[in-house]
Amino acid sequence: xxxxxxxxxxxxxxxxxxxxxxxxxxxxxxxxxxxxxxxxxxxxxxxxxxxxxxxxxxxxxxxxxxxxxxxxxxxxxxxxxxxxxxxxxxxxxxxxxxxxxxxxxxxxxxxxxxxxxxxxxxxxxxxxxxxxxxxxxxxxxxxxxx
Length: 146
What we know:
With 146 residues, the protein is an alpha/beta fold. The protein has six helices and five strands. A five-stranded parallel β-sheet has the order 2-1-3-5-4, with helices on both faces. Helix 1 links the parallel strand 1 and strand 2. Helix 1 packs across helix 5 and helix 4 runs parallel beside helix 5. The longest helix has 14 residues, at 12-25. The protein is globular and about 40 Å long. The N and C termini lie far apart (29 Å). The relative contact order is 0.17.
């Protein structure tokens, strides 16, 4: 798996901790898109564009709350970013919604929880033809028309 990760300066430490965790779990190739830009939208869009272009399988974005990066990433056609703060949602982001980017808050979740959330996000897969397929098809169809 190829994973793109980025954050704003507020989340630098959280990003570094998540990179170490993902590397220790052997999730695949991780590319750091940076954290120096105080305008979180810039890194969020770069990660989202790379994921939407299928250069990366998944993306991970972190800012203070995760809200700003999720809104920014979702402006990119083909990027489906989910703000995740609990395990059930982390699983359902993949299983029910085929999200390709996980967004986290550095100020709203602790390191160990972020590790569990990213683990749940990266180890679950959307199943083609599942009960959620018509819902996913609907937002993908809308996205493709814009």
